[in-house]
Amino acid sequence: MTRHELDARRLLCPLPVIRVQEKMTTLPSGDTLDVLCTDPGALNDIPAWCRINGHKVIDTRTEEHHIIITIEVG
Amino acid sequence: MGPFLFAGSLARRRRHRAVCSCRGFALVLPLPLRRPKAYSMTEQRKAVALISGGLDSMLAARLILEQGIHVEGINFFTGFCVEGHTHAIRNHHRQKPKRNNALWVAEELGIKLHIIDVIEEYKDIVISPKHGYGANLNPCLDCKAFMVGKASAWMGQNDFDFIITGEVIGQRPKSQRRDTMPLVARESGAFDRLLRPLCAKLLPPTLPEREGWVQREKLLGLNGRNRKPQIRLAARFGIDDYAQPAGGCCFLTDRSYANKLSDFWQARGDKSYELDDIMLLKVGRHLRPRAHFKLIVGRDEGENNFLSGYRRQYPHLYPTSHKGALVLLTGKANSDDLQLAARLTARFSQGRDAARVSIAVCDADGHQQTLTVRPLTPNEIPPHWYL
Predict the structure, then answer these.
(1) Torsion angle, CA of B134/B137/B139/B140, rounded to 10 degrees?
(2) Average pLDDT, chain B
(3) ipTM (interface pTM)
(4) Cα–Cα distance between B380 and B289 in angstroms, integer?
């Protein structure tokens, strides 16, 4: 199980979702992806995208200048 | 037992492909790329639904799901889409839900959604639409053919059988008319694999109907701009929360936005753009005091924060003696222009009634100077400066 990171800072939704979607196609099931975002809309959109596409958001945390959403690949 | 084959449909398909290739349509790609497939009565049919996030595409997908078809959604991001994020930039919109409506619709329907970045390819559609613009800079007919064409290509690559849209005859003056419906099917290359479930009964039967993949009698014959049938259908399906349809989902239909885009093209001298250019047109007050430069003035903290992300790309101004807006400057400004820009920046600060306001003027490389200026009065700002 490998941990990956995706920098989606300064991108407005739905671009963070699109970048996550592209990245997830390259990752095997069980790996995790930390997505760094600045658009608060990602807090709704990325979990929604994960729910309908069979992935799991396992953590969401807010740092000083960005949000980190951790996804487990389904 | 092997699958039951429809020899007639294969022949139709071959004829269809021959016609497509001899006409040489630019977007005719998907069908020739696909291997001819034997049609089986028992095979699970798959449809890709164009999901805008509005009610009509939601209902169209729902009608086809009801018929036992496997449906997945597709949504295209052009850069001009009106979505929750745009509202999220401004402070007073922060209480509104920031959901992406297409994702929300897909989740409500229980289908997958594929969001496709078409920013680069879409430029040609916006810059030189073959069928022209609508009331503003909306190239609706070209846009629809483009999106159905992209969906058609996706269908070919992913082994889906047909495309569905939420189009209704007479719903839109440019792209959803009886005479433009066949044009979209033809120019997109989707031909009779394009099914419009909400008005199918008013159109010739498509391949999914002829082959019995969907039952035509269970499709609808909606026509016109009246929304009541859709609202009744939504109620029948138990759908009581959906995006309001009248607002449109594209900034290009918005007069104010179209004015700013026209101005941007005029100042640039050609009709090109990058994503950042069109995003900035969505934010702030835009004033063009001189032909060779423009100011983008943040209207609240949310917009100031958004604009501050561009500080390394554009010269910018902000008041240091008072609270006020962050102002980006696009174009080329000489020292007189910077004085004027500083006075305008002072006007949009809490020092607007003060005798003097100090303004930091920074270039994109980080060099900074301070100008102390008298704020412009409202009478000194001609209305035509506002875009």
Answers:
(1) -60
(2) 87
(3) 0.93
(4) 11
Q: How many separate helices (H) and strands (E) can be counted in chain B?
A: 14, 11
Angle at B91 between CA B302 and CA B104, to 5 degrees: 100
- Write the DSSP symbol of residue B317: E
> What would the mean pLDDT of B99-111 be, rounded to a whole number?
93
pLDDT in tens, B110-162: 999 999 999 999 999 999 999 999 999 999 999 999 999 999 999 999 999 99
CA B219 to chain centre: 27
Do B360 and B293 fall within a single domain? yes
Q: Which residues of A49-63 are buried (b: 16+ CB within 10 A; e: fewer)?
A: bbebeebebeeeeee
A40 and B88 in contact by Cβ < 8 A? Answer: yes
- The answer as to whether B264 is a domain residue is no
Residues of A with catalytic roles: 13
**Could you give the CA distance from residue B166 to residue B55 in angstroms, rounded to a whole number?**
8
Do B66 and B218 meet the contact criterion of CB atoms below 8 Å apart? Answer: yes
How far apart CA B222 and CA B230 sit, in angstroms, is: 9
Q: Map residue B365 onto helix, strand or coil.
A: coil
In sequence order, what are the beta bridge partners of B287? B295, B386
Question: Cβ of B107 under 8 Å from any chain A Cβ?
Answer: yes
CB contact under 8 Å between A39 and B114, yes or no, is no
Domain count across chain B: 2
The domain containing residue B307 runs over which residues? 283-385
The answer for residues whose C-beta is within 8 angstroms of residue B245's C-beta and 6 or more apart is B54, B55, B56, B227, B230
Closest in B98, B104, B115 to A17, CB measured: B115
Residue A64: list chain B partners with CB under 8 A: none
Same domain, B232 and B117: yes
Helices (H), B90-138: 101-109, 119-127
Would you state the structure tokens that stand for residue B370, as one six-digit string? 């301070």
> Domains of chain A by range and CATH?
3-72 (3.30.110.40)
* Interval B302-314: pLDDT, tens: 899 889 989 999 9
Looking at the fold, whether B21 and B127 belong to one and the same domain comes out as yes
Give the N- to C-terminal CA distance of chain B in Å, as an integer.
Answer: 69
Rounded to the nearest 10°, the torsion over CA B312, B313, B314, B316 is -20
